[in-house]
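Below: protein 1.
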Amino acid sequence: MGLSRLDVFYRRLLLTKLFIGGWGKPEDLKRIFEFRKIIGDREKCRSLVPKDYPVYINKTEEHADCKIHDGFFISPLEHLVPGILPPEAVKARFQFIVPKRWQKDRPVCIHLAGTGDHYFWRRRTLMARPMVKEAGMASLLLENPYYGYRKPKDQLRSSLKNVSDLFVMGGALILESTVLLRWLEREGYWPLGMTGISMGGYMASLAVTNWPKPIPLIPCLSWSTASSVFTTGVLSKAVNWRELEKQYAINSVYEEEIIKLLEYCGADSFKMGPEFAKNVDSSEHLLVLSGDDRATVGLNSKAGGEAEAGRGLFIGGGLEGGSARVDQLLSSVNSSGMSLDTLPRSLLANNTLLGKKTDFAKCYRPSLHRESISFMKGVMDECTHMANFSVPVDTSLIIVVQAKEDAYIPRTGVLSLQEIWPGCEVRYLNGGHISAYLFKQNVFRQAIYDTFNRFCLKYPSRH
C-alpha cells in the first residue's frame, strides 16, 4: 500500500522544525529512562498514585444536553521526578463533558490530545459533544503537558523544543490518566475507557498498559512505537537533524552512557544493527568505520564524494600517521568546502596521539547522520514502544483504528500491535492520516461504542 499524497503535501505546508533545542539535558534523559523502568511495569506502579489523589472542579457550564466541568490537579510526575516538568505544565487541566441524561450506566471515555490539539475545543466539538448526542456517553478531555495552558513560554506553537519533552509528556500522561481513572471510579462512573487520535492514541495506549483492570482502549491513527514517526515517517523531515547531530557529536554522554540505559531489544530494536554492536572500541566506533555501509552516509548536505574523501583518512589507518594525517584531513576539508564543524570529536579527545594540537569542537564522522537516526530510534523505542510496557489486562477490549496509507505512522519494519497485544482488533480505513482525521471521526466514535459494548458484555458488573 502506498503513502497518502495528502499526508506528504500537508507536511510540506508546515514549516516549523521539531526539537530545535536538541535531545534535552543528558541528566534529564537519564532520569526519564530510570523512571521508565518503573512505569513500564504495572506491578511496580500500584502504589505510585494514591487512590484518593486530590482532583478539583473549579467551574461548571450548563448546556442544553450536557454539563461541562473544568477541573485540575497537580501532576504526580512533579512529586515523583521533581523538576522534570516545566513550571507551566505542573498543573494538569481537564474538561469533563457529562450528558444530562444517561442512556445506560454512566460511561466515561478519557480522550488524550493528538499533536497540535491545544486546549479542549477540537476534541469537544469533534468527539465529545457528538458522543453525548449519539450514545449518552461522557468524555473527559485531559490537556497534554506542553500544550495549551501547559505550554512553556519559550515553545513555538506545538513544536516540542527537546526530544526529551516527548518522554516527559508521556510519563506525565500515564500518571495523570491513573489519577483521573481513580477519581472517576470514586465518583461512581462506569464503565471507563481511553482513546486518542495520532499521538493521543499512543499516549492512551501507554496509560492503559499501566491500569491494573480490564479497560476499553481505542487508539486511532497510532501504532506500536513512535520511533518510526520521527525516523522514517513524513514528520522526520521536520526534525532539526542538524542540531541533533551536532549535540550527538560534541557530547560523548549520549553514546557512551545513555545508550547503555536503553533496554528495549526486540526484533525491531536499533540494537540489532551493526552500528550499535556492543564491545566496540570507542575510537574504532568513531573513526575506523570498518568496510560496511555505515560510512556511506554523507554529512548533512554534502555529497558522498566528500564523505568518501574524509573516510579514506581513517579506515584501516586508525589514528596512526600523526600530524601528516591531520594536515591531509584539513586540506581535504578546505578543498571540498566542508565546514570545520564536522571534524571528529576523537581528534580532540586524543590530540596528543596525533602529534598536533587541535581545538576543533566536533568530529568529522561520515556516519553521523545515520548514528543520530539510530540513537533517535533507540530513545524513542525506550519510552514509546509498547513492547517495553506491560500488556493491557484484557487485549480483547482494544480496537485499533488505522489508515492504510498513513505516511505519518509507518508500520513497515516495526512490530505490529497484534504481535505485542495478541487478541486486539485492528480496523483499517482507506486513505491516509490527514484524510482520516478530517473525515472519519464518526468511525473513531463507532469503535469507541463497540469497545464499550464489548466490555459490558464481558464484564456486566462493576469490579
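Below: protein 2.
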Amino acid sequence: MRPAQTQGPARPVTWAAGPGPREAEAAPAAAMAVALGGLGLLRARLRLAAAASATSAALGLTGHRTPPLRGGVAAAAALPSAGRSYSSQAKEEEELRVRYLNDEHKGIVVLGLNRSHAKNALSKNLVKMMSKAVDALKSDKKVRTVVIRSEVPGIFCAGADLKERAKMHSSEVSSFVSRARATINELANLPVPTIAAIDGAALGGGLELALACDIRVAASSAKMGLVETKLAIIPGAGGTQRLPRTIGVALAKELIFSARIVDGGEAKSIGLISHVVEQNEAGDAAYRRALALAREFLPQGPVAMRVAKLAINQGMEVDLVTGLAIEEACYAQTIPTKDRIEGLLAFKEKRPPRYKGE
C-alpha cells in the first residue's frame, strides 16, 4: 500500500436536509388526529407532535451544525479509486483512512481500518479518529453511502486492543468503553446508509462495529462472534442490544453466552449478515460486493434516503401506531423539496432524475 501523500485541508460541507415550513409538519398531525377521532384524538396529536419534533431534530432542522473536522487531509492508494483521507500525525494517521471515491462511485465514502500490527484492534487513537471522521461525515452533503472495511488482509477488526487495555486503570477502562460505545452509536446514527464489508475476522468490538451498520456483507471465510464472556466481561459497545434486534433474543443469548464464532455461511443463515460471498484471491470480495450494493443507492433522492433511514430506525423502537406517525412526519419533510419536483419531472420526461439533495 503506498504511503499517504499530504494535500490541502478538508472543506466539510453542511448537510441540507431540505427543511420545510412548519405547516408541512403540522398538517399530517391534524389529518391523522381527525381520522382517529374520539378518545384517540389527544393521544394521536401527542404522538404526531412528538414524532414531528423528533424528526426535525434528527434531520438537523433546528439550526445545529456539526463542527468541521480538524486536521490535515491525505491521499491514499485505494480500491477501486483513490480519494481524500482525514489524518492526524505520523504513524497514527494511517490507522484510519477515509476515502471519497470518484467516477461511478462518487458519493461513496470508505472508512478503512488500518492497524495491521494489532489486527485493527480498537485503540484510544483509532476510536478518536473514528469519532472525528464520523462527526465530519454527518454534515457532509456530498456523502451518499459509507462503507466500512479493513485495509488489512484477513481481518476486519479483532475488537478492543487488549494489550493497551491491560495497562489501563479500571477507571480508564470505563471511560474508554464509554467513548467507544458513543462512537459506534454515532456511526449507527449517520443519516446515510452504512455498509460493513467483512472480509476477515470480526470479533467482540469488531462485530459490534459491524452491527451498528445498516447492512453487513461478509466473505464465507470470515469469522464473527461476540466473545467477551471468555474474558469475564460482556459486550459493551452495543452488542447486547443490537445482536438481539438483528437475529432474535434467544439466538443472541446463545451466541453471547457461549462466545461462539460463526463463519459467513452460518452468519447469513441466522440473519446476522445480508450477503455472503466467496472470497477472492485479493481478499476483498465482501468489499467489492459492498461497493456494488452502495452503487444501487446512489441514484436515489438524497433527502428521501435520509428520512427513510430515520423513519425505519425510530419506528423500530416504538409501537406500530407511533411508528406510522413517525413515517408521516418523515414523509412531510420530502414534500417541499426540489428533489421531489425533479423526480416528478424526470418521470414525465422519461429521463434519469438529477437530484441535488435539496
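Confidence is low (pLDDT under 50) at residues 1-46, 61-79, 81-90.
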